Amino acid sequence: MRRIDVIGIGLGVFLLGGGLYIGFRWAGFDGLSAGVWSQVFFLAGLLGWVTSYLFRVVNSDMTYGQQLRNYENAVLQKRLDEMTPEQLADLEAKLAADKATEQEAAASSSD
Question: Most CB atoms within 10 A, among 18, 21, 88, 100?
Answer without folding.
Answer: 21
